[in-house]
Amino acid sequence: MGDDNGINGDLNANLRCQSTGDPQLDNAVHQWLTWDKNRRTRAQVESLVAVGRLDDLRSILCSRMRFGTAGLRAPMGAGFNRINDLTIIQSTQGLFSYLSRYFADFKSRGVVVGFDTRGQEESGCNSQRLAKLTAAVILSRHVPVHLFSTFVPTPYVPYAVKKLRAAAGVMITASHNPKEDNGYKVYWCNGAQISSPHDKEILRSIEEQLEPWSASCWEEELVESSSLRTDPLTQINSCYMDELTSLCFHRDLNSSCPLKFVHSSFHGVGHVFVQQAFQTFGFVPPIPVPEQKDPDPNFSSVRCPNPEEGESVLELSLLLAERENACIVLATDPDADRLAVAEKSDGCGWKVFTGNELAALLGWWMFFNWRENHPDPADTQKVYMLATTVSSKILQAFARIEGFHFEETLPGFKWIGNRMHELTKTGNTVIFSFEESIGFLCGSMVPDKDGVSSAAVVAEMATYLHNKNLSLNQQLHNIYQTYGYHVSKTSYVICNDPPTIKKIFGRIRNFGGEGSYPETCGGVQIIHIRDVTTGYDSSQADLRSVLPVSKSSQMITFTLQNGMVATLRTSGTEPKIKYYTEFCAAPGKSDVSSLEEELRKVTAALVDEFLEPEKNHLIRRFI
Questions:
Q1: Can you give 233-263 as a three-state secondary structure string?
Q2: What is the pLDDT of residues 283-304, one digit of tens each?
Q3: CATH for 425
Q4: pTM as predicted
């Protein structure tokens, strides 16, 4: 085996390390240096031992990653709770063993593997290398792997899992996380992200066999030499674009569209695929932001690679749109599963839509076109829209008036994807799903959020509305007039200390004495409390939450007397406490400014009274 540009190297390096004086830590160091073949990550551990940074060593070696709302996600670098060559090999061994036990036909179905454009020079970790090591582990056991030959959007992996009838899929990505991070996202055979009990069983399987099985697990070259490796790129891209036409309702308008669109791929994978999606819809491709269209693992031109942060990270896109006289800006996050949208305002400046506002527009658009093609009211009984419970209730308002079904899930698209699968099996049609963090799915071709298809759908919606002399923002207000204004606020504070997070939520659960939750927020009476972490729901006769209990994360929802709903929850992928508030007004009520002012007051109280940012040294969101 080759030296892989100096990444793989001498295994005897562990013999040179001195004792730390802590037998448990010494054992962890010894295990790492014995198993790890990546010269750079071994050197990172050796240097920490040499300078006696024992707390840092304990931090990276004495705990392991856990599956969150988006699989395994952590900083790249040395350590058992980091993303690196060794932990990816260990994770894949555990996944392989579990799949082998679960699927009798595993050897004929195989696994799909994709990757984004992330990388880190100092650890020698990059998404492509980690994807090849994932494939090598599986190929070493003579099971087929459908490994994409180049970077792809995250939704291509679940799409390929379904199309190829694979047993599972793995996507190496950390989506919109900081550049230091990477991740290992696992999809089940139904194309949805894994959920319980599979996640727990896979983790157990990983921990049962931490030592790499053989030298073959480290051989990236296996993906070039093995006859069991196929490249699904051409087939999957062609099928995806063909199927995308099912979401195109007004191609005749698109081909003569007078609007100009700007697209930023945030230094990630989206550029080529969004261009193709536009062409599939009959559009001229959007104007790319030149500084951001090519992959760059350092995300050099943005403060953070998350388009959800709004105008502050869309600066280059908006400047280009001004120069090109484009009225719509579309931004996909680095793995192209999320979509941000901004529209030129009538006067001056830009309207950057929130995830909840975009969902109102897309939900309206999908039902409007569905009804055009299904005029029989009876057909509506089989139609569903889905949203996570921390997202806007606007789809619920649609459903109440239009007669289709709406359901909520726990946060995370894995819950939506799995619910979609259940509904489809019983003959139902899910026409739109979303989570407020700019994650949308139009139709049901992929059981995960999809920024590529959503970008093309938004472009067509904007074109149709322009033909009716309406902007996206004007139509949003039309929707609110019909279904009721839904004013919402979503933000977060950063907390890098898990014990502090536990203390904060413990205080909320014992706010007025042991087992007593807060009774007011900002002077407004709290009438119901749902604590999904403990399974408590005061609105239910048996006081038990209808949503599944999720003990691995914190989430408490307050329903206030004035009709406002507020939720506090921990992020499954980042060191954040997120907060969500929404005011749902009745149809026809149009005094938006008073709604927004009341929302602002209660949101400020929610954060200050329950989270106590200054006292707990929380970092408020920078805008």
A1: HHHHHHHHHHHHHHHCCCHHHHCCCCCCEEE
A2: 999 999 999 999 999 999 999 9
A3: 3.40.120.10
A4: 0.93
